[in-house]
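INTERNAL AUDIT FORM
Audit reference: QA-55
Scope: verify that the stored structure record matches its stored sequence.
Auditor: D.O.
Record contents follow.
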Amino acid sequence: MRVGDAAVEKGRIIDATDARLGRLASYVAKLIMKGERVTIINAEKAIITGDPDVVAEKYLERRRRGSPHHGPFFPKRPDLIVYRAIRGMVPRKKSKGREALRRLKVYMGEPKNIKSDEVIKFREMQNPVECRFIRIEEL
């Protein structure tokens, strides 16, 4: 798609409520690599499946790794955790990956300029989660 196309200008708005983080990230990475603009809302309500204690310890270990001056730097805010998961699935060191990441916006909560009728529920949420999980806001 070219930049002048209407679909690129409008883009997709995806609600991340109860969406599994990895599946959401891979779906969004494919969309932005194809040239679509994507906005993710309610990023703090996405979930990571598994034992909540083990998942929380894993993320705390990532934050503690390295030094505060030289990195690696791992985000604490939920919207940045979702952004980083998507960034890991995009070739960000190449120009096409950098351009793709510019087409991505991630928000905590719902911005006031977004109408509720434009929002797409993530399709994987139709299958309810039957295992243990933790929300990103609880990390």
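Auditor finding: record pair retrieved intact. The first helix runs from residue 6 to 10.
Action required: none
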